[in-house]
Each structure stands twice: as structure tokens, then as C-alpha cells.
Specification:
Two copies of one chain form a homodimer.
Chain A lengths: L2 E6 L7 H16 L3 E6 L5 H12 L6 H7 L1 H16 L4 E4 L6 E3 L8 E4 L2 H8 L3 E5 L2 E4 L5 E3 L4 H12 L4 E6 L20 E3 H9 L7 H10 L3 E5 L7 E4 L16 E5 L2 E10 L4 H11 L7 E3 L8 E9 L3 H10 L1 H4 L3 E5 L2 E7 L8 H12 L6 E5 L2 E7 L3 H11 L18
Parallel strand pairs in A: 1-2, 1-9, 2-6, 3-6, 4-7, 9-11, 10-12
Antiparallel strand pairs in A: 4-5, 7-8, 11-12, 13-18, 14-16, 14-17, 15-16, 18-20, 19-20
């Protein structure tokens, strides 16, 4: 009997109606003959409400107790889901992350899974039951304290359980019909992708696509667990993410270009007048690293021969911008630059596709499309299967649309439907 | 260093303000040099809201998943309380029932504590921390499933932890100033009791007093843990419940009468025309027991010599009334009675006090007071330290007041303050 892991996000179980709809979907999978393990997020806004409550009693927004608080949300949704399934005449048992054997390190609020020992889940399945597991949470190996996995944690729980239980597929149910060739809110003619490789999905995720988080896809690739991203509202087939297209599925060929992603959450920092000598870049990025800031794109051009000075730019999450500027200013003398420029009115547009490796025209087509639309390019960064540019934020929607059209990604119709918010 | 267990009910932590007020009170105890273990209920209406949600997705209102759902409430309140204490500069750690070592049987929704292994609590105390424990919940010894302790469960958690940790006292913080000689909502001149014995408190609890539940007091008596019931709002000294008054505390002598309790939640069933022969009562109460009904008072008077028939009356929770009538009707022929009478417009008034054992005038004074007020007595039942009567429900408030006055229990002023709802 094949085993399926299904994950439902917060928007899919936002209220009692949502829970009942999801319960029916789970029972359908069971009736089709699968063993079913379900990972569920907290209902709708529950987590935000808990965070609000916490802010009223304490300025502390991290640590052991914060994790204990936040994990209450999944406890509620998983118990309700199990009860709803039982009322449909099927046996279900719910398990906390700890009970499900999700073992993590001790870094509260963004713990990493280090082992999964799903003995109780396996026992529930062996008895013919459906197992419901709290997403987003685990238990620390050392202290046996409750931990949370941070952003996208429930998806990671699902993939980790799928790997530990040797599942056939990990189905991630969300409020969109799958992964699209661009954000359907920006590009009305975005197409749903039937199949995408782990590699391309990873690039999309790190370029601003929010359907799957990088961490979850990385985990799935490591253990070779196919992910099927689909809507809990429509029930339509969604997007398969795996190493290879499924055998016999003609539609699922490697596309030249998988999609266009964009990201408006970053800011650009430019360090002006850096002496062009060894060790300068190292000093700058050591400073940034010491401040525990995650940077994204880094660009340095050749220096002007006349001055011996160069400019270095990087992008990072806008929320970290102030800290980066402060950290750099403090070491201005040691590093020896002229000045800093900070710009948070930027956007990043990325074209992703393994096909571009063997197709030299891609870069040219990309830049021509932007140029024809009058979009100015401020930074460029490329990998083997991705090209990213930074532009003015005001231009981003137009830029995504023209690039999407230029690479023939437009659908004949406007097929995307967005059903709700996003889970965690 | 002496160890104090404090328990705060749902009304004490109904909102962020309540949590902050309770956090300050806990820190004060710590500053006075105590080791402090705190048991906390779910915030205000949280549990009711979860029950409402459950009723929307499933008709099932019991079992493993229901317990998993309900225990989310304490997880929220205990984490917030720990965070609030930390923001006051003291170290606190929260523990679920399972983490605190509250081991129960496997009877979901009304599990019984069978062992307490508070190793993690002790370790937290040894490190100088305040330990916050979720009330009302435990983990089953056999299946390692989450269980709840049923009504009054948090008080029982507190007493059980106090026993296991050899605490000096178990302080039960609630929304009234202590145990009163009568319900202050009925008797304005009710007096707060400074000290009451376990025995009298047990009788009051089973006679309708709701401040402490029978089960919690029984546990405290078994392990000889003094309970101090007091208000989390006023901070005044409350009522001590223990085996003996504390040495040197003159005010705490055994009173003749501890108090007057009343209960309007019961119904009266009368079985009319029962043959007065051996085995009849047994057949009746076996029938009731088979229907899993808990009966309270049972009264049978001598039979009328002329008929050889007698009447048997009993009281039971009104919510069980219908089941009792149905069960008895089904066995009418076997038992051989004439008819059944059911009356849910009754109330029970009880006078409690160990002093009455040695004071023969108590019963007379009690009945005279009721008679003078025109209150008709329908049933009488007595124990060594309690007299209970059943009257019309319409008469109950007046009956309680006149009895309270007749035994000199009236305070000179109206001292009782009721601050909020009641926790669980």
C-alpha cells in the first residue's frame, strides 16, 4: 500500500468549514487505498493572534517560551482535523511534533530537523489509522524542549516525514493551483507549471517565489522525495517537483525557461570608493557576517584605472538594511571606503531555467525585453540556470510581464486562481 | 528554602493585564525567598471557544483528540506567563503536564493522576528558576497520550505537584477571597473562613460549594498538603484548609459550624409503592448504577404497615434525570414499583461542621430556622458532620440566609467581593 504525506497550510484550515473540506479530501485519499499522513499548520490567523498576545505581556519575541506559545496553534488545528475525520467514519490520531519524532537542534524559533523517528506514526498507520501531525514544531534532542522550525516549517515537517516514512509523494496543499511561470497576481497569463526540477525550483524559491520555501525543496532533493504542490480548494492536479519527469508523462519535459520570479523585499547597499586591493571585499563581508545579516546578490565591477577605486553593491532583506549600514559605518576607517548608499526602492527580477545553460540567446532576449519596455538595469548577477537583475521597484510588474511574454510563457487564457492568504 | 505551589484559575489570567498581574505576584513570592511552582489554567474563555470550534467540525465531545484540543489553552497561558515573568527580570520555564511528569490513567477527559515524577520541575527549581506548569493535563502511563483531568483538574494538578515536591503549602488563587460560610451572592453577610478542616471542606464541596472541588481536597488530605485559597485580585489572606489549625493562630479554632452550602443543580426521583422486602433497594440502585448515574442523597422511610409498600427517593444531577427515569421505567416490572415521580424544582441546603457531632441542638436549631421562615422540608439526610435537606428551589436563598443567621455566622458587614468568573 502506498504512503502519501499531505500538508495543509493555515489558509486551507482557516475555519471550521475549511477543516471539514480538508477532512473530506484526506478521507478521499484514504479511500483510494493510500496510507495517509497529514501535516497541518495553525488555523488562519491563530499564530498572529498569539504573537499579538505575547507582545502585550513581554518584549521578548524568541526563545523557549515563545516556541511553547506558538505551537499551541497546530495543537488546535490537528485535534480538530482528527475529530472531523472521525466524524466521517474514519480513524485518525493527532500527534505533536514531539510525539511524531521530529527531533531538532536546540535553536529556538528556527530549529533545524536533525532526525525523524516516526515510530508512533508508523504504528498508527499499521493499525489502519490516518495520522495527523502538527507542522512547524519539534523537540530538541538535548533538552527535550519544544522547538519551532521557523518560516515554512510545516512544509519542511511534511517533507521530512515523507523521507523518514519512505512516502511515494509529499503533497503540499496551498491556496494556489501550483507553481506558476510568474506570480499570477502580476502576470494574468501566467501558466501553471506541470513539472519542474528540484534545481529550478530552488532557484525560483531563492528568487522570490513564495509557493515553496528553499529549505523544504532542498530537503526534498536530498532525500529524493517528489513534491506535488496543489490547491486544497480546487482539487486540480498541481505542480510536480522532482529530479526527473515521471515516466510516460509527455507534457512534463524540461522547459527552456521554468519561470520568472520577482522579489520586492530587498534593499541595495552600495559601498562607494573602495580601494581596489586584496582583502577589501573580505573586510566588508566579514563586517556584514559579524552582524548576522544574510546577503543575497553581490556585484563588483572592474575599477576605474584612473582612481584605483571601485564600488561594491549587495542586496539583502530590507528589514536588515539599517543594521548593515550601521555595521559598515562603524568600520568605515578600517575598511577605507568613501561613502555608503542605501536604496530600498529596488526590485529583483530573475529568469530561471536549466535550459538556459545551453542556449546563449537567453541573456540577450532577457535584456532586450527589459530595454524595449524602458526598464533600466542597475545590477546583474547570473548563475548557470538563473539570471537576476535589479531594477527600480516601480518598474517591477511591467518588467516581469514583458520578460514572461518574451520567453513565450504566456498562457492562452488567464488560468490562475488565488484562493486565500498564505500559510506558514 | 521553602517551596510553594501556586495555582491560578482562568479568571485570574483572562487577558494580558491579568497575566501581568499574576506574574508580579509570582515574582513577589520568589523575592520573599520561596522556590515557586505555578500551575495555571487556560485564559478566560479559551476552553469554551475551543469547545465551540470542536462542535462545528464534529459531534464527538470526548476522547483522545478532544483532550489534545483542550490542552492547547494551558499551553498558551503558561508560555505567556513565563514570558511575562522573564520580562520582570526573573527566570521562568513552562512545562506541559507531560513534561512536568503528571502521569495519569488512560481515561480521556476525566483521567486520574496515578503518579507524579517532577524531575524536570525539580531541575528547574535547582537552577533557581520559577516553574510554570499547565494545569488540567497529564500523559497516560500506557499509551503516552495527552489526557485531561476533567472538572477542577488544575486544582488537582497543583495539589498533586505540591505533594510530589513536598511543598510547604499549595496556594489556590481564585476570584474570591476564600471559602465563605455561605455563597456571598446569596448571603451578603457571609464571612470568610480563616481555617477549615479537610473533613468539613470535603462536606462543603460535596454539598454545592464551588470554591474547591471534592477531588482536590481529597488529594490534599491524603498527602496532608495545606491548601491556602485566596484571591489573585486582592492579595488578602484567604482560607487555610488543613488537618489542624496552624500553631499559634488563635483565630483558627474549630468552629461549631463551618458553613451553609446549597446546590440547585440536582433533581429528585421518587419511586412510589416499592414492596418493603429485601432486595428491592438493591434492584433499584443496581439499575441506576448500570446506567452510570451518580446519585447523591438516598432516603427511604418506614413503610406503611397497612400496605407493605414504601417510597424511596434519591437525588442526582439534573442532567442525568432523564436517563435515570428511562432506566427505571425499563425495569419497572422486575423491580415491581407503582410509579415514578420526577421533580427538578428542588434545592439542597446543607449545614456542615465537625462541631455538630457533640452538639445535639444543631439539628433542632436548623429545622426551627427553616420552619420559622416557612420553608417546607421534603427530604432529610445526615452524616456525622453534615445535615442536608431538600426544599423547593424557590425557597433556597431565603433558607440559606435564615440558617446562616440562626447559627451566628453572619458577619457585621458585607465583606465578600466576587471579582470575576470561575476557572476550571
Amino acid at each position: 500500500m502506498s504512503l502519501v504525506v499531505q500538508k495543509y497550510g493555515g489558509s486551507s484550515v482557516a475555519d471550521a468549514e475549511g477543516i471539514k473540506r480538508v477532512a473530506k479530501r484526506i478521507v478521499e485519499a484514504k479511500k483510494r487505498g493510500h496510507q495517509v499522513v497529514v501535516v497541518v499548520s495553525a488555523m488562519g490567523d491563530t499564530t498572529d493572534e498569539l504573537i499579538d498576545l505575547a507582545s502585550e505581556v513581554s518584549p521578548i519575541t524568541s526563545g523557549r517560551e515563545y516556541d511553547m506559545l506558538l505551537t499551541a496553534g497546530e495543537r488546535i488545528s490537528m485535534a480538530l482535523l482528527a475529530m472531523s475525520i472521525k466524524s466521517l467514519g474514519h480513524e485518525a490520531q493527532s500527534f505533536t511534533g514531539s510525539q511524531a519524532g521530529v527531533i531538532t537542534d536546540s535553536v529556538h524559533n528556527k530549529a533545524r530537523i536533525i532526525d525523524v523517528t516516526p515510530g508512533r506514526i508508523q504504528a498508527a498507520l499499521d493499525e489502519g489509522n490516518i495520522a495527523i501531525v502538527a507542522g512547524f514544531q519539534g523537540v530538541s534532542q538535548d533538552s527535550k524542549d519544544i522547538t519551532t522550525l521557523g518560516r515554512g516549517g510545516s512544509d519542511t515537517t511534511a517533507v521530512a516525514l515523507a523521507a523518514a516514512l519512505n512516502a511515494e509523494v509529499c503533497e503540499i496543499y496551498t491556496d494556489v493551483d501550483g507553481v506558476f511561470t510568474a506570480d499570477p497576481r502580476v502576470v494574468k497569463k501566467a501558466r501553471k507549471i506541470d513539472w519542474i526540477s528540484f534545481g529550478d525550483m530552488l532557484e525560483l524559491a531563492s528568487s522570490g517565489s513564495k509557493v515553496l520555501l528553499h529549505r523544504c525543496v532542498e530537503y526534498a532533493r536530498r532525500y529524493n522525495i517528489p513534491i506535488h504542490v496543489r490547491s486544497s480548494f480546487s482539487g486540480l492536479p498541481g505542480t510536480w517537483v522532482s529530479n526527473e519527469p515521471r515516466v510516460g508523462d509527455d507534457a512534463m519535459e524540461q522547459a527552456l525557461i521554468s519561470g520568472v520570479a520577482h522579489d520586492t523585499s530587498e534593499a541595495k547597499v552600495t559601498i562607494v570608493g573602495v580601494p581596489d586591493k586584496p582583502g577589501e571585499a573580505a573586510a566588508i563581508f566579514r563586517t556584514v557576517a559579524d552582524a548576522e545579516l544574510n546577503i543575497d546578490m553581490v556585484v563588483q565591477n572592474v575599477s576605474a584605472a584612473s582612481t584605483g577605486l571601485t564600488d561594491i553593491s549587495f542586496t539583502l532583506p530590507r528589514t536588515d538594511g539599517k543594521k548593515a549600514i550601521e555595521a559598515l559605518e562603524r568600520r568605515k576607517a578600517q575598511i577605507g571606503f568613501d561613502s555608503l548608499r542605501y536604496d530600498d526602492q529596488v526590485a529583483k527580477i530573475s529568469l530561471v531555467g536549466a535550459g538556459m545553460k545551453t542556449n546563449p540567446g537567453v541573456t540577450a532576449t532577457f535584456f532586450e525585453a527589459l530595454s524595449n519596455a524602458g526598464v533600466n538595469i542597475e545590477l546583474i548577477s547570473t548563475s548557470e540556470i538563473r539570471i537576476s537583475v535589479v531594477t527600480r521597484q516601480d518598474d517591477v510588474n511591467e518588467a516581469v510581464r514583458v520578460v514572461h511574454t518574451a520567453f513565450g510563457l504566456d498562457s492562452d487564457s488567464e488560468e490562475a486562481v488565488v484562493y486565500g492568504g498564505t500559510g506558514r
